[in-house]
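ok trying this again, last paste got cut off
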Amino acid sequence: MAARTEELASLLRRIDDPEIRSLFTPEFILCCEEFDRFTTDMVLRLVRELALDLPLSDGATAAGLVDRMGFAPRAEIPLGWFLRKLAADGYLDSEPVGGQTRYRARGPLPPGDPDRAEARARSIDPDAPPILRHLIVEAMQSGQKPVALSAARTLKQKSADLEDRYLAATILLQENEYEAALPIFEEYAGQHPGDATALLGLGMLYINETRYAEARTALERAVQIKPNLPEAEYNLGQVAMKQDKGQEAIQHLQRAVQQQPRHAAAWFNLGNLYLESGELNQAENALRQSLAADPDQPKAEYNLGLVLNKAGKQQEAREHMQRYQQLLKAEREPAPGEPKGITPQ
């Protein structure tokens, strides 16, 4: 097996079908590697037990070995495979000779220890950091968030490497496990002060902790490093809203939607701010933009209904209020196969 674990990422990128790629779990790859080593060690042991090491030191073809050692003619096929295997693993040189291939040992052949190789294969730890790292990436790409979250929790505990723990913390942040993610983001951002993405995550975590001044500092640094970062502008808007700085919030949210025109949450917040300030035309436009980006927002439908009602567009306002009720009902109804619960008496 020519490929080893460190080459796994580049090899997997060549597999276009994500369902097929997901079959190549890190544990499977490591087991294949150990099986490959087991096979090599087994072949080396057979070479030693069959006394083939001496003729191979002089150079021989598979057919020549059959004749020299007095093997049955049918032994040429497995012997050919043994020789090709040892050549692929770098133990033998090969050269074409008269329609056959002559193999010569590059040096003394090791005895081989298949028992040790088998023991290694059986001792693979599925919670080893290389396996967990790969599992997180593959699970997120295939939409298996619970798998990714479980692997991230384990990686955080198992690995002392900051890069590993930061990878785990990014998943913890996405899955709302803020308390576990925060100290890792603080450490990582401290050691990588130029990483805008880490500063963005740190700012989001500080917002969750209501540490708004620290959130502002982290997010402003992120924007300085990477000006075109709509999520940083959006979260700066959130900080300004929490601090009752409406006009500043509008400026940040406007920049967010300029950089990412289909940012539903930024448009929604803009609509609310415009509504609060009585700017009904701007509020209507912002809420319509939000719903165009994400139609399934009950709150956006409700607020747009309020805006339209204030603007004297009662018929359209009623339509959006009806849509609001429909979305609420859909949110409350269990998915197919889920229990419906007990109806209160």
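PB: full thing came through this time. The first helix runs from residue 8 to 12.
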